[in-house]
Design goal:
This protein is an alpha/beta fold and 287 residues long. It contains twelve helices and ten strands. The chain has one domain: TIM Barrel (Alpha-Beta Barrel). The strands form two sheets. An eight-stranded parallel beta barrel has the order 1-2-3-4-5-8-9-10, surrounded by ten helices. The protein has a two-stranded antiparallel sheet with strand order 6-7. Helix 2 links the parallel strand 1 and strand 2. It binds 1,3-dihydroxyacetonephosphate. 1,3-dihydroxyacetonephosphate binds next to strand 3, strand 10 and helix 10.
Length: 287
């Protein structure tokens, strides 16, 4: 069932669990995530970056592929197709293509410009029932060629953006995309607490879910995080499983070169990672 994130995250915030956003790259990714969500009876958010959208030949292809799979795989749990770190123009085309949710990442603009653009997008998305995620304070690390230094969000700015009618808010609290460096200071819970108080009852989003220890994830959820984004971890487990298959020479045995066989261990690995995260986030059985 294709839905926006509004209802599923409102329920998550009230029930003190988080829904995972898992980024998709291709058919195998999408299928693995949808099947796991159904198996776990969990709501799920499919994250699509602009780069991944282009890779999959455009947002329309993504929407049609997901809709086809919902039908073809009999997926009955709530599923959102969500633009990840959208530009203003990207957000417009995602709305046009039929995404059920968008993120506008205006965190690199001065706050006034972030406010103005976020407001415009909310006015376009809301009447169509499309949810909007805004961002304050950048998420560190590199994603799709965009490198952020990682800046902790100011609670007063978070409140300003939250009041614009957005559905969810991503706030930088020392989290970064990709693997965490050995000298990482951990999440800034003091900042999270202040942001959570200032923006209550807005569900908060934690980006950079890869590699955050389980106890920090649980604490973040207890402080108001209702959506957690995971991307790199699925890529790492997929790559490791396919590497193992090739290194064992299985592609050279019989029809082992068939992509449906060659990629199967990668698909299984994504499923395992997604299931682990759904269990950790507490979304299992909450569809
Ligand atoms: P990771 O790649 O670190 O899991 O981050 C994903 C993310 O935040 C997507 O927006």
């Amino acid at each position: 069932m294709l839905v926006s994130v509004t209802e599923m995250l409102k329920k998550a915030k009230e029930g003190k669990y988080a829904v995972g956003q898992f980024n998709i790259n291709n058919l195998e990714w999408t299928k693995a995530i949808l099947l796991t969500a159904q198996e776990c009876n969990s709501p799920v958010i499919l994250g699509v970056s602009e780069g991944a959208g282009k890779y999959m030949t455009g947002f329309k292809t993504v929407v049609n592929m997901v809709k086809g799979m919902l039908e073809g795989l009999n997926i009955t749990v709530p599923v959102a197709i969500h633009l990840d770190h959208g530009t203003y123009e990207g957000a417009l085309s995602a709305i046009e293509a039929g995404f059920s949710s968008i993120m506008f990442d205006g965190s690199h603009y001065p706050i006034e410009e972030n406010i103005a653009k976020t407001k415009e997008l909310v006015a376009l998305a809301n009447p169509k029932g499309i949810s909007v995620e805004a961002e304050v304070g950048s998420i560190g690390g590199e994603e799709d060629g965009v490198v952020g230094a990682g800046e902790v969000a100011d609670p007063a700015e978070c409140k300003m953006i939250a009041d614009l009618g957005v559905d969810i808010l991503a706030a930088g609290i020392g989290n970064i995309h990709g693997k965490y460096p050995a000298n990482w200071q951990g999440l800034n819970f003091e900042a999270l607490e202040k942001i959570s108080e200032a923006t209550h009852p807005m569900p908060l989003v934690l980006h950079g879910g890869t590699g955050i220890p389980g106890d920090m994830i649980k604490r973040a959820i207890s402080l108001g995080v209702s959506k957690i984004n995971v991307n790199t971890e699925c890529q790492l487990s997929f790559a490791a499983a396919v590497r193992k298959y090739v290194e064992a020479g299985k592609d050279l045995e019989g029809k082992g070169f068939d992509p449906r066989k060659l990629l199967a261990p990668g698909v299984e690995a994504i499923k395992e990672t997604v299931k682990e995260k759904m269990e950790l986030f507490g979304s299992v059985g909450k569809a």
